[in-house]
Write a structure and sequence with these properties.
alpha/beta; sequence-specific DNA binding; Arc Repressor Mutant, subunit A; single chain; five-stranded mixed sheet; elongated; D-Maltodextrin-Binding Protein, domain 2; 295 residues
Amino acid sequence: MGRLPSLNALRAFEVATRHLNFRLAAEELRVTQGAVAQQVRGLEAELGLKLFERQPRTLALTEAGRGYVANVRRAFELIAEATAALRPEPQHITISVTPTFASKWLIPRLPEFTAAHPDIDLRIVASDRMANFQTDAVDLAVRLGRPPFGPGLSADLLFEQEIVAVASPLLVEKLGAPDGAESLARYPLLHDAHDFWPRYLELAFPSHMPTVAKNIRFNQTSLAIEAAIAGQGLALASLFFVENDIVSGRLVRPIPTVLAASSDFYVVSPRKPRHPAPVAAVRSWLANAAAGRTG
C-alpha cells in the first residue's frame, strides 16, 4: 500500500466540497476556518494538484477535485460500513399492544426478552386503537379478536380469554366469600370497557341473578385490576393477566366460575414484514413466553 494522504486532510477536503465554503466546513468539523484551509492547502501540496478554485465568496471544484472527491467520499463510506459491521446497531421493532397487555403481561417479562435478544430494540406502543401496519410503522401487534384480521396479515393464537373474578384476600376476609346472591351484593363490582359482568353473573348464578349495590367503572382492565388489588371490589380479567397477582397473594379467586370470551389474543404481523428476521424472533419469543417456555 502506497503512502496515503492525511485522513484529517481528506476529511476537511470532503466536507469543504459539500459546502464549497471553508467557514461552513469548519462549523461542521468544529475546528477553525483557518485549520480547514490549511488542511486543504497541505493536501493540494502533497498531491501537486489544485483541488479548488478560490473565489471571492465561495469555492469551486477543479476538474481534478471533482474526480478525486467521488472516490474519497466512497472510501469514507466503506470505512463507515466496515465500522458499523463491527458494531451493529440494534434492530428496531415496534409492537402495538393494549395498555393492559403492556402493563400486566409484557412489561414484567421485558428483562427476559432483552436477555434473549440483546440485538433487538423493542419499541412498545400501548393503545386501544387498532394499529395500521402501513401508516403507523408498526411491525407486529397483539390484538384482541378473531381472525382473519385483514388481507396480507398472519395471525397466531397467543392466549385464549378465560375471564375470572378476582379480589383482594383482605376484602374477602372482611366481607365473606361471595358464593351467593346475598353475599355477592356486599361487593362493589369493578367494570371495564369489555362489560363482562352481566354474562359472568348469569353463568355463575343461573338460578338467581344477584342485585349489586355498587358499580365502579374504568376504561382500562388494568385499572380495574389495580382497584381490586387495593381492596375496592371484585374485578373481572383474563386469567393470564392476573396469574402473577394470584401466585403472589395480592389477589384471590373467590368465585370459581370461568367465562370463555368470544375473542382471544393473537399476535399479528404482515406476511411480508419489513424486517423478517427480528419480527420472526419476537413472534417466537411471544409464543414461548405465553406457553411458559421462557425464563
